[in-house]
């Protein structure tokens, strides 16, 4: 169906699921069915949209475009918190029907807006629509269709697609094959999503209000959610710059250390100073109050750091690490890993926290230290590389800690000397 057609299909499925939820007042069964259908749309779009962004954005701004994907998610969550804050006190079904039903607006925006988007040039070339691919490449790069840059890009993509299609139709097992280090690339994508979900930020999103109330705050859970949502939005904005200036590796390494410090301080301070959950705030000592303020401060810093580094960067990496042949499948595996661990965290976290309290944050501290080591040893730098150059880097077996200095040869891209001359001309113009 192509990237654009797939977005259209799953946006429609999501919108139908929301309509089913909103159409009832008392039936929990109908709400559950609608939730399930809408979830299919959200899950599919979380795989397709990074794929589409990665394939259509010029490499100089590809990281920024994929960060914008994460920023829009965070903005959406923040808006939902504000709407919840404004409607939760309504004394009838409008209290939940308004926030649930408003999701249809975003579904309709996507359904109508997708008609104004071009198809991925890589998909067009893979399906032998060469003229359409030239038009899209020229449009996306704001150059004439007969420019040398368009011809060089088409030649590069066509050669890469030809090389990838030599083995016949791709299968799911190929995502874990030794061909072109695919097992390593797929494993990296899935592992980054796994570590991202166990950073600890979702624990604050889901259950932070309980912890903050034990810290003595008088704020309602709805206000706490809104504050955390605002912090996330503010934190994601610098990532638009850092992803292209610092790069992917440095962002992940810095974020792991930042959040690890926040997690261990909040966990230990909370464990040794806070009163048990449910203690009346009038009985809190000055020691409890200072401990509570410290816990809240480092929780906010934790969420802020996640939004700058580990929130967007794994999605950027997922969108730019795979060859065309298996790109859709590998990104789907990474997205599925994200949702699987999101579910497991939300299911088990309250049960663990009920037994060990703030010490649960030490679990996230350990995961962040593991994440630092894993990124240093396994995740190469992909900043400034085309998707085909990322493929070459993996095939060359470059050590991740030396990848920042690696330069592509591009010898495998050009089938003729004329194509190489065109590329050199375009580089000279740039």
Automatic annotation (TrEMBL):
<feature type="transmembrane region" description="Helical">
    <location>
        <begin position="219"/>
        <end position="243"/>
    </location>
</feature>
<keyword id="KW-1133">Transmembrane helix</keyword>
<keyword id="KW-0812">Transmembrane</keyword>
<dbReference type="InterPro" id="IPR005829">
    <property type="entry name" value="Sugar_transporter_CS"/>
</dbReference>
<dbReference type="GO" id="GO:0005351">
    <property type="term" value="F:carbohydrate:proton symporter activity"/>
</dbReference>
<feature type="domain" description="Major facilitator superfamily (MFS) profile">
    <location>
        <begin position="1"/>
        <end position="383"/>
    </location>
</feature>
<feature type="transmembrane region" description="Helical">
    <location>
        <begin position="330"/>
        <end position="350"/>
    </location>
</feature>
<keyword id="KW-0813">Transport</keyword>
<dbReference type="InterPro" id="IPR050360">
    <property type="entry name" value="MFS_Sugar_Transporters"/>
</dbReference>
<feature type="transmembrane region" description="Helical">
    <location>
        <begin position="255"/>
        <end position="275"/>
    </location>
</feature>
<comment type="similarity">
    <text>Belongs to the major facilitator superfamily. Sugar transporter (TC 2.A.1.1) family.</text>
</comment>
<feature type="transmembrane region" description="Helical">
    <location>
        <begin position="33"/>
        <end position="52"/>
    </location>
</feature>
<dbReference type="Pfam" id="PF00083">
    <property type="entry name" value="Sugar_tr"/>
</dbReference>
<dbReference type="InterPro" id="IPR020846">
    <property type="entry name" value="MFS_dom"/>
</dbReference>
<dbReference type="InterPro" id="IPR003663">
    <property type="entry name" value="Sugar/inositol_transpt"/>
</dbReference>
<keyword id="KW-0472">Membrane</keyword>
<feature type="transmembrane region" description="Helical">
    <location>
        <begin position="7"/>
        <end position="27"/>
    </location>
</feature>
<dbReference type="InterPro" id="IPR005828">
    <property type="entry name" value="MFS_sugar_transport-like"/>
</dbReference>
<feature type="transmembrane region" description="Helical">
    <location>
        <begin position="356"/>
        <end position="377"/>
    </location>
</feature>
<feature type="transmembrane region" description="Helical">
    <location>
        <begin position="64"/>
        <end position="83"/>
    </location>
</feature>
<feature type="transmembrane region" description="Helical">
    <location>
        <begin position="295"/>
        <end position="318"/>
    </location>
</feature>
<protein>
    <submittedName>
        <fullName>General substrate transporter</fullName>
    </submittedName>
</protein>
<feature type="transmembrane region" description="Helical">
    <location>
        <begin position="95"/>
        <end position="117"/>
    </location>
</feature>
<dbReference type="InterPro" id="IPR036259">
    <property type="entry name" value="MFS_trans_sf"/>
</dbReference>
<dbReference type="GO" id="GO:0016020">
    <property type="term" value="C:membrane"/>
</dbReference>
């Amino acid at each position: 169906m192509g990237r654009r057609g797939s977005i259209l299909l799953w946006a429609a499925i999501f919108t139908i699921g929301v309509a089913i939820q909103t159409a009832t007042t008392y039936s929990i069964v109908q709400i559950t069915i609608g939730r399930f259908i809408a979830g299919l749309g959200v899950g599919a779009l979380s795989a397709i949209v990074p794929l589409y962004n990665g394939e259509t954005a010029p490499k100089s701004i590809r990281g920024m475009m994929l960060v914008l994907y994460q920023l829009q998610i965070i903005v959406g969550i923040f808006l939902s918190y504000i709407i919840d804050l404004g409607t939760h006190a309504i004394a009838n079904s409008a209290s939940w029907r308004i926030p649930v039903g408003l999701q249809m607006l975003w579904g309709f925006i996507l359904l109508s807006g997708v008609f104004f988007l071009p198809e991925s040039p890589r998909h067009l070339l893979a399906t032998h629509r060469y003229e359409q691919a030239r038009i899209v490449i020229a449009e996306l790069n704001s150059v004439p269709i007969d420019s040398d840059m368009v011809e060089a890009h088409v030649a590069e993509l066509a050669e890469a697609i030809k090389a990838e299609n030599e083995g016949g139709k791709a299968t799911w097992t190929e995502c874990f094959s030794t061909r072109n280090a695919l097992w390593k690339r797929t494993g990296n994508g899935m592992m980054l999503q796994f570590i991202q979900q166990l950073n600890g930020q979702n624990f604050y999103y889901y259950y932070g209000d309980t912890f903050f109330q034990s810290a003595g705050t008088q704020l309602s859970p709805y206000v706490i959610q809104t504050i955390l949502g605002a912090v996330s939005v503010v934190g994601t904005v610098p990532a638009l710059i850092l992803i292209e200036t610092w790069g992917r590796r440095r962002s992940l390494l810095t974020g792991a250390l930042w959040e690890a410090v926040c997690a261990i301080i909040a966990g230990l301070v909370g464990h040794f100073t806070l009163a048990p959950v449910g203690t009346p705030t009038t009985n809190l000592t000055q020691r409890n109050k200072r401990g509570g303020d410290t816990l809240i401060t480092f929780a906010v810093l934790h969420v802020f750091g996640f939004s700058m580094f580990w929130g967007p960067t794994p999605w950027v990496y997922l969108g730019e690490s795979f060859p065309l042949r298996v790109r859709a499948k590998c990104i789907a595996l990474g997205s599925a890993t994200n949702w699987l661990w999101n579910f497991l965290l939300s299911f088990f976290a309250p049960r663990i926290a009920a037994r060990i309290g703030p010490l649960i944050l030490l679990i996230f501290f350990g995961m962040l230290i593991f994440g630092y080591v894993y990124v240093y040893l396994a995740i190469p730098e992909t900043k400034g590389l085309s998707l085909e150059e990322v493929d070459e880097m993996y095939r060359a077996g470059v050590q991740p800690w030396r990848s920042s200095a690696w330069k592509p040869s591009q010898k495998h891209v050009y089938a003729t000397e004329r194509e190489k001359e065109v590329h050199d001309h375009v580089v000279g113009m740039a």
